[in-house]
Amino acid sequence: MTEDLRAAALEAITRSHALADPDYPLVHLAPPIGRLNDPNGLLVDSGTYHAFYQFSPFHPHRKLVYWGHASSRDLLHWTHHDPAIIPDSFYDRSGAYSGGAVVLEGDELHAAPAEAPYQFFYTGNLKDPVTDERTASQCLVTSPDLERFDKWPDNPLLPDHPAGYTAHFRDPQVWRDPDSPGSFRMLLGVQREDLTGAALLYRSSDLLSWQLEGELTFPDAGGAFDRFGYMWECPGLVRLTDELTGQVRDVLIWCPQGIEPAAEGYENIFPCVYTVGRLVGTELRECDGTFAEVDRGFEFYAPQAFARRPGEPGPATLVGWAGNASEDDQPSIDTGGWVHALTVPRVLTLRGGRLLQQPAVALPEDAPALSVVGQQLETTTAIRELEGHRSWRLRLEADPAAARWGLRIGDETCYVTVELVSDGDSTRLVVDRSHSRYTQHGDIRTVTLPTGTQPRLEVLHDRSLTEVFVGDGEIAFTLRSFVAPGASGAGLIADDRLVPKGGSAVVYD
Ligand code: FRU
Questions:
Q1: Does any ligand 1 atom lie closer than 6 A to the CB of residue 257?
Q2: Which residues in 377-409 are b (16+ Cβ under 10 Å) and which e?
Q3: Which residues form the Glycosyl hydrolase family 32 C-terminal domain (predicted)?
Q4: Does residue 171 line the site of ligand 1, with CB under 6 A?
């Protein structure tokens, strides 16, 4: 008898005690049990956000990835739903890997497979039990209502990788071509046969039959991305208008494994970078070959933006995995049987070719000023408004002359510090978690701020996960912050004389 994988996952979820774990986040989406990795199929539907994600309900005992599913109306409170994709077909029985969603409307809907508005594309992963040989295929799931999810009967749509590439062929992003009505495009991460990374573009008018257009190329990048790592995971394009120039740009965000640039950063096992150009055919034109990390924290990978219905207004909103490969050694696996979470959704802006990120849920304009504002501080001072709270969001501004200031989260012995340190010439963000319960894969990290970044810190702390945004979001920094389990609040570090210029906070618990 074949195993009922849906029933097995649901049964595992009923045994979960994750929610009772003091480290389980409140406003970040974490798995109900087991392991989470990449966000998948993010979409907005009539004001409700749906997040799917790589979900391993039996972790660490058995490795098998499903698509988990949760939804939220306010991007702060998430409701879990039953897993959406179960890896129980001949083409995905070693895992339903990452992919994306398209939401159809009007005529598109009538022409669509199964006439269903929600179309999900994902990678079916297959490993031969004897030879361990991998086959990767691209597959479709349709949904009429985001409650029922039907695998397309003629899956897989793309049964195997094309000639010239290895079986590392995965993570489809599908979107409607704004330059060619009635046409859809698919971007996939691949490994060439010479073991270098690349991305492939496919095109379709019915979402079922896909024609290979070719590799994504960078004609103006001086060869910068020709031999750039050994595999590209989770490539995605986001179209944004540059605030400074008014130009429409296509931002490519992807995870090139195995790059070692001679620049500050790139400390994580796998990086996530972006570059900016304009997609014409298969060419990312006007991309000069410069690239930068999307997030500078210890834990960040495989982000994707929410898909929308055509014409649905709103900003581009990105969610990342607040984790990275081989980081499953976190305390929560023992205390709560779960590991990893997604970042909060972040609004993307492009300013002069630089990507800025801010939490999509803004701090209320009318939030009262913190009591430390305007006070002269000389030592670490408890922030009264956060006392007793373990999930909160804070915005603080200091005088640009302040030499060293920031936050201490946790208690006196088990804590994380987030500081801005200036030496007159430049300012650095210094994050130190060496005194916390999780120091593997990085304990102290320094990030030099781009010139002109305002001395402003936004910190979103949620029990064991912290996201830091500096200035207008020039720097985003995600970290797991396993401070003392019961510790609440935060202290404002004022090593020198400090008079906070402005600040406000909200609490979530
Ligand atoms: C990125 C990734 C993807 C793959 C998925 C498998 O973290 O390796 O390339 O589809 O995770 O869980």
A1: no
A2: beebbebebbeebbbbbbbbbbeeebbbbbbbb
A3: 389-495
A4: yes
